[in-house]
Specification:
The complex is a heterotrimer of chains A (265), B (376) and C (294). With 265 residues, chain A is mainly α. Chain A has twelve helices and no strands. The longest helix of chain A is centred in the first third of the chain and has 34 residues. Chain B is α/β, with parallel strands linked by helices and 376 residues long. Chain B is built from eleven helices and nine strands. In chain B, α2 links the parallel β1 and β2. In chain B, α5 packs across α6 and α7 packs across α8. The longest helix of chain B has 19 residues. The N terminus of chain B is likely disordered. Chain C has a single domain, classed as MetI-like (MetI-like fold, Orthogonal Bundle). Classes of the chains: A mainly alpha (265), B alpha/beta (376), C mainly alpha (294). Chains in contact: A-B, A-C, B-C. At the A-C interface, α1, α4, α5, α6 and α7 of A face α1, α2, α4, α5 and α6 of C.
C-alpha cells in the first residue's frame, strides 16, 4: 500500500471520527456550562457564573432525598444483579442443559423488549403485589433491566480465562468449590466488577420504569428531574444533570481501568 | 337512604327560609355556565353543620390524610391556603402526593390499595362515568348551594377555578394585540408559531371552533370535522406542549408567539420570569379542578370534613393569595391583589365552558379524532 | 452408554451441577419480567372500556383506526432510517477504532458508550436547547447573518434522528468492531500484493469479511429503535409519533389498558417477526455475543 492514498483517506477518517465524537459528546456536555449560570433561566451560553444551583440541589430536600434514593436503589440493584448474573453466567457457560439458547434469549430479552412495555407490565403487577412505590419494587425492576449486562460481562470473562489454571489446581488436589473460590473467582473478578458497575449505572440513570414505580414520597433522581422539568424550568435541573453525568463518566472510566487488569488469554 | 333523604329535604326547606334574608355583600364571581353543563345531582342542599367552616371537628390523634394534587406552585398555594391552616385547626397531619393522576386512582381502587384520601383532579374526571372509582361526596357537610352552578356533582366538587386562555409574547406582535382566537389562527397578520396543549380534551377543538365563529353556547356537541379543518390551516405552525412549565417556557422565550395556556402559567411567565407575556381574556374557557375521594379510602369521613371546610366561603379563596386561581364558592372573597388576574373576574358573555359530561362520554371519539388529525 | 442425541459425552447427565446455578436468575426473570409481559398480553383480550363479548375487539379497534396504522408504519420507517444513519456513522467509526492504538480505541469506546448511559432526560433536554428555534444553532446562524429565519431543526424527523442515533450508535459500532478485530490483516495485504489498488482491496476483501458485523449491528439497532418513545416525543413532530408513545398515552391519559396492551402485543409480535426473519440470514449468537466485546 502506498502512503500517498493513505494520508488523505486517513485524515478523512480521522475527521469523520472526530465529528462523530463531537456529535456524541457535545449535546450531553452542553448542560455542564448551563449549570453554572448566574441567571434564573436555562440559557446557553450561560450568563455569569454561580454555583448556587448546586447549593440548591444539595440543600433542597427533594433533590437530596432523590439523590439518596437513587444511590440506595442503584447499590442494591448492583448487588442483586451481580449475584444473580454471575451465577447464571457460570451456569450457562460452564453448564450443560437442554434449551440453553432459550435461556440465553430470556436473559438478554430485557434489553430488547421496549421499555414502555416492561414499565406498564411491572406497574400493573407490582401494584397488585403491593410493592409498587417501594424500594423493593424498584430494585427488582432495575435488576431485571440490569442483569443482561452482568451476564454478558461475566460470560466474556469466563470464556477468556485459561482453564489450564483450574485444571492445575484440581490436579494438585483442590475440590471444585475450592478451585472456584481460589482460582476461578479471582480470575473473573474484573468481569464481575465491570458487570456490577454497569448494573449500577443502569439503575442510576433509569427513568421510564421508575416513573411508573415511584411516588412523590419515594423518588429517584431521574424521576425527580422529569417532574421538575414539568413544573419549573430553572438551572437546578442542569446542575442535577451534570452531577448524574459526572457519576456515570467516573464509573465508566472505572470500568475501563478494571477491565484492563483482567488477565486475558 | 330514603328516610335520610326525606329528613334532609325537610331541614333544607327550613334552612332556605332562614337564610333567605341574609345575603353576602362581598363581590362574587359572575361566571354562569350554560344549561348544558348540568350537575349530576339534583339533591337539594342539606344544611351543613354551621361550625364546620370556622370550627372543623378535631381529628383523632395521629390521623394522617393523604392529599394528591399536581405539585409545583399550584400545590404550594393549596398547601399554604388550605392544608396548613386546616392541620393547625384540627390536628390532622397531611401527607402529600404531587402526581395526581386518574390512572393512579384507577390502579389503587382496582387493586384495593387506596392510599389517597383527597385528590385534586381535572375537569375530565369525577363524573358518573367514574362512579365505580369514587365515593359520593357528603353534601350534608358541603355547602352545595354556595358552589358555582354546575360545579358540584355527586362525586366531585370544584375547589379552584382557572381559565384556559390565549397568551401572547408582546415582543413578537409587531405592535398589534390579538383580540381573540380568530387572530390566533391568522398567521398572516400575526406570523409565528402557535402553542397548544397536547391533549384532545384540553380545549384545542373548542378554540378552533370559536375561531371559526361558533358561539360559546353552541360549542357542544363539538363539530370535529369543522374544528380539524380549521386546525389544518395552521397545522405546520403548531407546537404541542404537555406540561405547564413547557407552555410557560415556550411563550416566555418567544419560541411560540401565541399559545393556549392556563392563566396561572401566563401570570408566572410575566410576573415571575419577567418575560414580555400578556393574557387575552376574551373567549377564555372557564373551568375548574375538582376534589374527589377514591372509593375505599379508610379516612372517608375525615376527607369529607376537609372538603367541606375547603369549599366554605371563609376558606375557599385562600389559595388566591399565592396563585391567580379563583374560588368556586360564590360568596368567597379572593385576595384583592389577585382579583384582576382571576379567570372568574374576567369572565363575560364571550367566555366558554367545557361540557364535561359530553367530553367524558365521548372521550374515545375525541381521542381518536385528535390522534387521527395529529398524525396525518 | 450414549443416548441418541449425541450431544452429551458418554454417561454424562442431561443437566449437570453447573447448570443449576442458572436457576435463580431464570426464576427471577420469569417472576419479575416474563409474568408482567404475559399479564400485559392478557389484558389485551380481557380489558375493555365497555363490556363486550368479542375478546378480540381491542385488536379490531386498533386496526380500524387509520392513525394507529400510520403510527405503526412510521415506527418501522423511523427505525429503518436510524439504522441507515447509524450505519453511515458507525462503520467508519468502527474502522477507525480498529486501526488506532488500543488506548485511543478505549477512549473512542467510552465516547460512543457515554450517551447510552447518560440520563435520557439530560440528553433530550440538551438536544432541545441546541435545536430549537431560539436554541444554540439557530441563534448562532442568525447572529452571523447566515439565515434570516430560524431553521426548523426540532420537531422534525431530523431532530428525532439526531437524538436516537446518538444513543443507538454503540449498538452498531460494537458488533462491527468485534468482527473487524478478527479479520486477519494478511488478507488485505495479500490482495494488495497481488496487484489490487487499495480501495479495491478494501471493497472486495475487507468489506465482505466485515459484513456479518454490519448485519448484526443493523439488526440490533433496528430492533432497539422500534421501542423508543421519549426521544421522538420530545424532539419530533406529531408525524414522527412512534407506537410506544401511543402505548404510554393509552395507559396514562386514556386509562384504556385494553388498547395499550393490544399495541404492546402487536409491537412485541412484530419485533419477534423481525428477529425470526433475520435469523435466517444472521446467526443471532453473533449479535448478542458481540456485546461482550464491550
Amino acid at each position: 500500500m502506498t502512503d500517498s492514498w493513505r494520508q488523505p483517506r486517513r485524515l478523512l477518517l480521522l475527521a469523520l471520527g472526530a465529528l462523530t465524537v463531537f456529535f456524541l459528546m457535545a449535546p450531553t456536555l452542553v448542560v455542564v456550562p448551563m449549570s453554572v449560570t448566574a441567571s434564573n433561566a436555562l440559557t446557553f451560553p450561560p450568563e455569569g457564573f454561580s454555583t448556587r444551583w448546586y447549593e440548591k440541589m444539595l440543600t433542597d430536600p427533594q433533590w437530596s432525598s432523590g439523590f439518596v434514593n437513587s444511590a440506595q436503589v442503584a447499590f442494591l440493584t448492583a448487588l442483586l444483579a451481580t449475584v444473580l448474573g454471575t451465577l447464571a453466567a457460570l451456569g450457562t457457560v460452564r453448564g450443560r442443559f437442554p434449551g440453553k439458547s432459550a435461556v440465553n434469549a430470556l436473559v438478554l430479552s430485557p434489553l430488547i423488549v421496549p421499555v414502555i412495555i416492561i414499565a406498564i407490565g411491572m406497574f400493573s403487577l407490582f401494584v397488585r403485589w403491593k410493592i409498587s412505590g417501594s424500594i423493593a419494587g424498584l430494585v427488582l425492576a432495575h435488576t431485571a433491566l440490569a442483569v443482561p449486562f452482568v451476564v454478558i460481562n461475566v460470560a466474556t470473562s469466563l470464556r477468556t480465562i485459561d482453564r489450564n489454571l483450574e485444571l492445575a489446581a484440581m490436579n494438585l488436589g483442590a475440590d471444585p468449590v475450592r478451585t472456584f473460590r481460589r482460582v476461578t473467582l479471582p480470575l473473573i473478578l474484573p468481569g464481575v466488577l465491570a458487570g456490577g458497575l454497569f448494573a449500577f449505572i443502569t439503575s442510576w440513570d433509569e427513568v421510564v420504569v421508575s416513573i411508573f414505580l415511584t411516588t412523590a414520597r419515594f423518588r429517584t433522581l431521574p424521576v425527580e428531574m422529569w417532574e421538575q422539568v414539568r413544573q419549573v424550568v430553572d438551572p437546578t435541573v442542569a446542575a442535577v444533570a451534570t452531577t448524574l453525568l459526572a457519576v456515570t463518566t467516573s464509573l465508566l472510566l472505572l470500568v475501563l481501568v478494571v477491565r484492563r487488569q483482567a488477565p486475558a488469554r | 337512604m330514603t328516610s335520610w333523604r326525606r329528613l334532609s329535604v325537610l331541614v333544607a326547606v327550613g334552612a332556605l327560609l332562614v337564610t333567605a334574608c341574609g345575603g353576602a355583600a362581598s363581590p362574587s364571581p359572575t361566571a354562569a355556565p350554560p344549561a348544558t353543563a348540568a350537575p349530576a345531582t339534583v339533591e337539594p342542599p342539606a344544611p351543613p353543620t354551621a361550625d364546620i367552616c370556622t370550627n372543623p371537628p378535631k381529628a383523632p390523634a395521629g390521623t394522617t390524610l393523604t392529599f394528591a394534587s399536581y405539585g409545583g406552585a399550584y400545590q404550594e398555594a393549596q398547601r399554604k391556603g388550605w392544608l396548613e391552616p386546616y392541620a393547625a385547626l384540627t390536628g390532622v397531619t397531611f401527607q402529600e402526593s404531587e402526581d395526581s393522576s386518574n390512572a393512579t386512582i384507577k390502579a389503587q381502587v382496582e387493586a384495593g390499595q387506596v392510599t389517597w384520601d383527597i385528590v385534586d383532579v381535572g375537569n375530565d374526571f369525577g363524573l358518573d362515568a367514574n362512579a365505580a372509582l369514587l365515593e359520593p361526596l357528603d353534601y350534608s357537610k358541603i355547602h352545595q348551594d354556595e358552589i358555582l352552578d354546575g360545579f358540584a356533582g355527586t362525586y366531585r366538587v370544584a375547589d379552584i377555578t382557572y381559565g384556559v386562555v390565549l397568551a401572547y409574547n408582546t415582543d413578537k406582535m409587531g405592535g398589534q394585540v390579538p383580540e381573540g382566537w380568530a387572530d390566533f389562527f391568522d398567521t398572516t397578520k400575526f406570523p409565528g408559531k402557535r402553542g397548544m396543549w397536547d391533549y384532545s380534551a384540553g380545549g384545542i377543538f373548542e378554540f378552533a371552533l370559536l375561531a371559526d365563529g361558533v358561539a360559546p353556547g353552541d360549542l357542544y356537541p363539538l363539530d370535529l370535522a369543522r374544528a380539524t379543518k380549521k386546525l389544518d390551516t395552521i397545522k405546520e405552525d403548531l407546537v404541542f406542549w404537555s406540561s405547564g412549565a413547557e407552555s410557560q417556557d415556550l411563550i416566555g422565550k418567544g419560541e411560540v408567539t401565541m399559545t393556549m395556556i392556563w392563566n396561572g402559567r401566563g401570570y408566572s411567565a410575566k410576573h415571575i420570569d419577567n418575560n414580555p407575556v400578556e393574557i387575552q381574556w376574551n373567549q377564555q374557557i372557564v373551568t375548574a379542578d375538582y376534589f374527589v375521594v377514591p372509593k375505599g379510602t379508610p379516612n372517608k369521613d375525615l376527607a369529607m370534613d376537609f372538603i367541606a371546610w375547603a369549599t366554605c366561603k371563609e376558606n375557599n379563596a385562600a389559595p388566591s393569595k399565592y396563585i391567580p386561581y379563583g374560588p368556586t364558592n360564590k360568596l368567597a372573597t379572593a385576595d384583592p391583589a389577585k382579583v384582576a388576574d382571576l379567570s372568574v373576574s374576567n369572565a363575560d358573555a364571550n367566555s366558554a365552558y367545557f361540557d364535561d359530561a359530553w367530553i367524558v362520554d365521548n372521550a374515545q371519539l375525541l381521542e381518536d379524532a385528535y390522534q387521527e388529525w395529529k398524525t396525518k | 452408554m450414549t443416548r441418541g442425541s449425541g450431544r452429551r459425552p458418554r454417561g454424562g447427565p442431561i443437566v449437570d451441577r453447573w447448570a443449576l446455578l442458572a436457576i435463580p436468575l431464570i426464576a427471577f426473570l420469569v417472576a419479575f419480567f416474563l409474568v408482567p409481559l404475559i399479564v400485559v398480553s392478557l389484558r389485551s383480550v380481557a380489558d375493555f372500556p365497555k363490556p363486550t363479548g368479542d375478546i378480540f375487539s381491542n385488536y379490531g379497534r386498533f386496526f380500524a383506526s387509520a392513525a394507529n396504522l400510520r403510527v405503526l408504519a412510521n415506527t418501522f420507517w423511523v427505525a429503518a432510517l436510524s439504522t441507515v444513519v447509524c450505519l453511515a456513522l458507525g462503520y467508519p467509526y468502527a474502522y477507525l477504532m480498529n486501526i488506532v492504538r488500543p488506548r485511543v480505541a478505549g477512549l473512542l469506546l467510552i465516547a460512543v458508550l457515554l450517551p447510552f448511559w447518560s440520563s435520557l432526560l439530560v440528553r433530550t433536554y440538551a438536544w432541545q436547547v441546541i435545536l430549537r428555534d431560539t436554541g444554540i444553532i439557530n441563534t448562532f446562524l442568525l447572529d452571523w447573518g447566515l439565515i434570516t429565519e430560524p431553521i426548523p431543526l426540532i420537531r422534525t424527523t431530523l431532530g428525532v434522528m439526531l437524538g436516537m442515533s446518538q444513543v443507538l450508535l454503540p449498538f452498531m459500532v460494537l458488533p462491527i468492531y468485534a468482527v473487524m478485530r478478527r479479520i486477519d490483516p494478511e488478507y488485505t495485504k495479500a490482495a494488495a500484493n497481488l496487484g489490487a489498488p487499495p480501495f479495491a482491496a478494501f471493497r472486495r476483501v475487507f468489506l465482505p469479511l466485515s459484513l456479518p458485523g454490519v448485519l448484526a449491528g443493523s439488526l440490533l439497532v433496528f430492533v432497539l429503535a422500534l421501542g423508543f418513545y421519549i426521544t421522538p416525543a420530545l424532539l419530533g413532530s406529531p408525524k414522527d409519533t412512534m407506537i410506544s408513545q401511543f402505548i404510554a398515552n393509552a395507559v396514562q391519559q386514556r386509562l384504556d389498558w385494553g388498547i395499550g396492551a393490544t399495541m404492546a402485543v402487536i409491537l412485541m409480535g412484530l419485533t419477534l417477526v423481525v428477529l425470526f426473519v433475520a435469523s435466517r440470514f444472521i446467526r443471532l449468537r453473533d449479535v448478542f455475543g458481540s456485546l461482550e466485546e464491550s
